TrEMBL record:
<feature type="transmembrane region" description="Helical">
    <location>
        <begin position="547"/>
        <end position="564"/>
    </location>
</feature>
<dbReference type="InterPro" id="IPR049453">
    <property type="entry name" value="Memb_transporter_dom"/>
</dbReference>
<protein>
    <submittedName>
        <fullName>FUSC family protein</fullName>
    </submittedName>
</protein>
<feature type="domain" description="Integral membrane bound transporter">
    <location>
        <begin position="430"/>
        <end position="555"/>
    </location>
</feature>
<keyword id="KW-0812">Transmembrane</keyword>
<feature type="transmembrane region" description="Helical">
    <location>
        <begin position="470"/>
        <end position="488"/>
    </location>
</feature>
<feature type="transmembrane region" description="Helical">
    <location>
        <begin position="494"/>
        <end position="515"/>
    </location>
</feature>
<comment type="similarity">
    <text>Belongs to the YccS/YhfK family.</text>
</comment>
<feature type="transmembrane region" description="Helical">
    <location>
        <begin position="522"/>
        <end position="541"/>
    </location>
</feature>
<keyword id="KW-1003">Cell membrane</keyword>
<feature type="transmembrane region" description="Helical">
    <location>
        <begin position="90"/>
        <end position="118"/>
    </location>
</feature>
<keyword id="KW-0472">Membrane</keyword>
<feature type="transmembrane region" description="Helical">
    <location>
        <begin position="130"/>
        <end position="148"/>
    </location>
</feature>
<feature type="transmembrane region" description="Helical">
    <location>
        <begin position="154"/>
        <end position="176"/>
    </location>
</feature>
<keyword id="KW-1133">Transmembrane helix</keyword>
<dbReference type="Pfam" id="PF13515">
    <property type="entry name" value="FUSC_2"/>
</dbReference>
Length: 764
C-alpha cells in the first residue's frame, strides 16, 4: 500500500512539474481562478438579496472588470487602484444611464471616453487600469440598458462587485510578487530539467526517423526555457528584497539558460549535425536541419555521456534546500571536473566539447542553487567545486546595477497619444456603422475596435489581431448556440458555464487570442440566455458587429497617424543590432583585458529586444500574409539574429569568468576582431537609417588569421581561447550574413596570399 501511494505521489509530482513548466509561475492559473472567485463571490452576495437577473449579470461583468483591469505587481498599489476604480465605475455607470436616451450626445461622449481611456495609459499601470475600468463599466451600462431609476441598485451592485474582487485578490487567491517569483523559480527549474531530458533523448536516440522529432523537442524546450527566463526578469525588481539580490538572481538564471543552450548545441555537434553552429534553439518555428545525423555507436563514451546527463538532471530536480546528501555531492563534483581538460574522456573534439558543456552546465546549476538557497555544506567539495564557489563569490562582489534613463517621447510621437487618436477615430466609425446594423447592439463594434488596439504597435499587428478576434467569434457563436440550447432556462447552470468560459478565457489569453475570443463569445451567448434576449439573429449580429469593428480599427490604423509594419520592424531591428553590438563589444573588451561590465545584463537586454522584434514580425510571418518573399526574409533575419545572439551570449558568459577565474586569461589580440564586428554592425544600422548610405560590410579573412604575433599559429583545439575564437568567427559570419537580406553591399577583401575572400554564414 505504501509503495502504491509512493508511486501515485511520484506520478502526481511529475504531472504537477510539467504543468508548472507549461504555466510559469502559475500566472495564467491564478488569473483564471482569481477572476472566477470574484464572480462567484459577487453572485453569492447579490443572490442573497434576491435581485433581478439583469443585475446579477451586471455584477458578474463588473467583478470580472475589477479583477482583470488591475495590473500593478505590488499589493498596496493594487489596493489603491481598486479604491480609485470604484468611483470611476460609479461615474461611468451614471453617465451611461444618463446618456443612454440621447443618441448623438451619448455617442460623442463614448468616443471622448474611449480617447481618454487610451490617453491615460501614459501615466503607467494605474492610468491603464482606471481607463479600462471606465470604458468597460460604461459598456456594461449599455449591455444591461441602465436607467436613471435603477442607478441605486446598480451602485450597490458595483460596490458588491468591487468588494468581492478585493476579497478574491487579497484573501482567496492572493499572489504577492515574492510568491510569484518563487513559483517562477520552480517553473524555471522544471523547464531546465525538461531541456536536459530532451538532450538525454537526443543522445540516446538511434532511430533516424525519430531523431528529427528529438531535435524539434530540444528546440521547443529550449525556447520555453528562454520564455520562462524572460518572465523571471520581469518580476525580479518587485519580487526580491533589493536591487543587488535581483541582479544576482538574474545573473544566475542567465548563466543556467546560456549553459543549457550551449550544451544543446554541443550535443548536436557531437551527433554530427553539420549546421549545429547556426541552430536557433530559441526560435520555435526555425527551419529543420538539412544535414542528417549519423547513427551513434553505443560505445562506452556515449553511455558515459548519457549517464552524466542523467546526473545533471538529478542535480536540477533536487534544487530544493532539503535535497542534500553525499550522493548529490559526488555527482556534482564529477560533472564539475569536466571543466578541466585532463578529466575529459578520450574522444573526438566535438564529443569532448559536449562533456565540457556538461561541466559548465553543472557549474551554472551550482550557481543557481547558491543564489536561491544561500551557502551550502562544503565538506564534500572537490577542488574544482571549491574553485567554482570562489568564482561565484568574486562575481557576487562585482555586481553593480546602474539604472539607465528611459527615453521619453512627446506629442504625437508618444505611442499612447497616437493610439488615442486612432481608437477615437476608429470608434466613431464603428458607432456610425454599428448603428446602421443595429440600433440596440452597436456597441459590440466599438468593443472590437477597442480591443484590437490593445497591446499592438503597428498596422500589421492590428490586422492580425482583428482577424483572430473574428475567427474566435465565429467559432464561439457556434458554441454559444449549442450551449444556449442545452441550458434552456436553468439560470444557475448557465452561470456555472459562464464561469467555465471566464476561466478558459483568462487561462488561454496569453497563449491564443483566438481561444480567448471563442470563450468570451460562448459566454456572451449564455448571458443573452440569462437576459432572455437570446436568438440566432443576435449571435449572427455579433459576428457582423465584430467584423465591422475590426474593419474600422484597421481603417483607423491605416489612415490616422499610421505606424507602418515595416517601419516598426526596422526600428526594432535597429534596436536588436544596437544591443548585439553592445554585448559583443563589451564581451570582447573584457576578454581582451578591458574593464569588467555587467555583460549578462546586457545580454538580457538583447534577448528582450529580440523578443520585441519577433512580436513585431509576426504580421509578416503570419500564414495569411500575401507577401511570401517578405515572410521568408523576415524568418531568415530573425533566425540569423538568434544565431548571432547565441554566440554573443556565449562570449558574454565566458568573459564574465575572466576577472575571477584562474584558468581563463585575457588576450589583447581579440580586440581587433571585436572592432571589425562592431564596425559591421554599425554599417548595418547606418543602412537601416539611411537608404543612400554607401558604406560596406567588411567580410575579411577568418578571425583566427587576424591574431598577430608569434602565437598566430592558433590556439590549442578545445581550449578556452579556441572556443572564444569559434564564437567570434560565427558571430562575424552571422553579421555578414545579415547584409544580404538587408541589401547592404559586402566588400570583397583579400587574404594574406592575395586571394579574394567572401565569407558566407554557416548554413546559408
Amino acid at each position: 500500500m505504501a509503495e502504491a501511494l509512493q508511486r501515485v505521489r511520484q506520478a502526481w509530482d511529475e504531472v504537477w512539474d510539467r504543468f508548472v513548466a507549461s504555466d510559469p509561475g502559475l500566472i495564467r492559473l491564478m488569473a483564471g481562478l482569481r477572476t472566477v472567485a470574484s464572480i462567484v463571490l459577487t453572485l453569492a452576495v447579490l443572490a442573497a438579496f434576491q435581485i433581478p437577473v439583469s443585475l446579477l449579470v451586471a455584477g458578474a461583468m463588473a467583478a470580472m472588470v475589477a479583477t482583470f483591469a488591475i495590473s500593478e505587481p505590488l499589493p498596496r498599489d493594487q489596493a489603491v487602484t481598486l479604491a480609485w476604480g470604484l468611483p470611476t465605475a460609479f461615474a461611468a455607470m451614471s453617465l451611461g444611464a444618463l446618456l443612454n436616451r440621447y443618441v448623438i450626445i451619448g455617442d460623442l461622449f463614448f468616443v471622448a471616453l474611449i480617447f481618454a481611456a487610451v490617453y491615460v495609459r501614459r501615466f503607467g499601470d494605474r492610468g491603464t487600469s482606471l481607463g479600462l475600468i471606465g470604458f468597460q463599466v460604461y459598456f456594461v451600462s449599455l449591455f444591461v440598458h441602465a436607467r436613471v431609476a435603477t442607478l441605486p441598485q446598480l451602485y450597490g451592485t458595483l460596490f458588491a462587485a468591487f468588494c468581492c474582487a478585493a476579497v478574491a485578490r487579497f484573501v482567496l487567491v492572493r499572489a504577492t510578487p515574492e510568491s510569484t517569483l518563487q513559483r517562477l523559480r520552480r517553473a524555471f527549474r522544471a523547464r531546465l530539467a525538461q531541456v536536459v531530458e530532451a538532450q538525454m533523448a537526443l543522445v540516446g536516440e538511434t532511430a533516424p526517423d525519430k531523431l528529427d522529432k528529438a531535435v524539434d523537442d530540444l528546440r521547443r524546450q529550449t525556447a520555453r526555457l528562454h520564455e520562462c527566463a524572460l518572465m523571471i526578469q520581469g518580476r525580479l525588481e518587485d519580487g526580491t528584497r533589493d536591487a543587488t539580490s535581483a541582479a544576482l538572481l538574474q545573473r544566475r538564471v542567465a548563466d543556467a539558460e546560456i549553459a543549457a543552450e550551449r550544451l544543446g548545441v554541443l550535443l548536436l555537434k557531437a551527433r554530427h549535425f553539420d549546421s549545429a553552429d547556426t541552430l536557433t534553439l530559441h526560435l520555435p518555428d526555425a527551419p529543420a536541419l538539412d544535414a542528417p545525423a549519423k547513427a551513434p555507436v553505443e560505445d562506452e563514451t556515449t553511455r558515459r555521456l548519457r549517464r552524466d546527463l542523467a546526473g545533471l538532471h538529478l542535480l536540477i530536480s533536487r534544487l530544493a534546500p532539503n535535497d542534500r546528501g553525499t550522493g548529490l555531492a559526488v555527482i556534482r563534483n564529477r560533472l564539475l571536473d569536466y571543466r578541466e581538460d585532463e578529466n575529459l574522456p578520450r574522444a573526438s573534439l566535438a564529443v569532448q566539447d559536449a562533456f565540457r558543456g556538461v561541466g559548465e552546465a553543472a557549474r551554472a546549476v551550482l550557481g543557481l542553487r547558491l543564489a536561491l538557497d544561500g551557502p551550502q555544506d562544503e565538506t564534500d567539495d572537490s577542488p574544482e567545486t571549491t574553485r567554482s564557489r570562489e568564482e561565484f563569490d568574486a562575481e557576487d562582489v562585482a555586481i553593480v546595477r546602474e539604472e539607465e534613463p528611459e527615453e521619453t517621447l512627446a506629442g504625437l510621437q508618444r505611442p499612447t497619444t497616437r493610439a488615442a487618436f486612432q481608437v477615437g477615430v476608429g470608434s466613431a466609425l464603428a458607432i456610425a456603422g454599428g448603428e446602421l446594423l443595429s440600433s440596440q447592439r452597436w456597441y459590440w463594434a466599438v468593443l472590437t475596435c477597442w480591443v484590437v488596439f490593445l497591446n499592438t504597435s503597428s498596422t500589421g499587428e492590428i490586422l492580425v489581431k482583428g482577424y483572430r478576434r473574428l475567427l474566435g467569434t465565429v467559432i464561439g457563436v457556434i458554441a454559444g448556440v449549442v450551449l444556449a440550447g442545452l441550458v434552456g432556462h436553468h439560470t444557475w447552470t448557465a452561470f456555472a458555464l459562464v464561469l467555465l468560459c471566464v476561466f478558459g478565457a483568462f487561462f488561454t489569453a496569453p497563449l491564443s487570442y483566438v481561444l480567448m475570443s471563442f470563450f468570451l463569445t460562448a459566454m456572451l451567448g449564455l448571458l443573452y440566455t440569462l437576459l432572455s434576449t437570446y436568438s440566432i439573429a443576435v449571435l449572427e449580429l455579433r459576428i457582423e458587429e465584430t467584423a465591422l469593428g475590426a474593419a474600422c480599427g484597421i481603417i483607423a490604423a491605416l489612415f490616422v497617424l499610421p505606424v507602418r509594419t515595416h517601419h516598426h520592424t526596422d526600428r526594432q531591428l535597429r534596436e536588436v543590432l544596437d544591443k548585439l553590438g553592445e554585448v559583443s563589444s563589451a564581451a570582447v573588451e573584457q576578454l581582451s583585458g578591458g574593464p569588467a561590465a555587467d555583460l549578462l545584463d546586457l545580454a538580457r537586454e538583447l534577448d528582450s529586444a529580440l523578443d520585441n522584434l519577433r512580436r513585431s514580425t509576426r504580421p509578416l510571418t503570419h500564414p495569411i500574409t500575401p507577401l511570401r518573399v517578405r515572410r521568408r526574409t523576415a524568418r531568415y533575419l530573425v533566425a540569423l539574429l538568434e544565431t548571432c545572439a547565441y554566440h554573443a551570449r556565449s562570449l558574454a558568459a565566458t568573459a564574465e569568468l575572466v576577472p575571477s577565474s584562474t584558468r581563463i586569461a585575457a588576450d589583447p589580440r581579440l580586440e581587433r576582431a571585436g572592432r571589425r564586428i562592431r564596425r559591421n554592425i554599425d554599417v548595418l544600422i547606418e543602412h537601416l537609417e539611411d537608404e543612400n548610405a554607401t558604406s560596406e560590410v567588411e567580410s575579411g579573412a577568418s578571425v583566427a588569421s587576424m591574431l598577430e604575433g608569434p602565437e598566430a599559429v592558433g590556439p590549442k583545439p578545445g581550449s578556452v581561447t579556441f572556443r572564444v575564437l569559434r564564437h567570434l568567427q560565427r558571430l562575424h559570419e552571422g553579421v555578414v550574413g545579415l547584409a544580404r537580406p538587408l541589401g547592404v553591399p559586402v566588400a570583397e577583401t583579400r587574404d594574406r596570399g592575395g586571394k579574394a575572400v567572401q565569407t558566407l554564414p554557416s548554413g546559408s
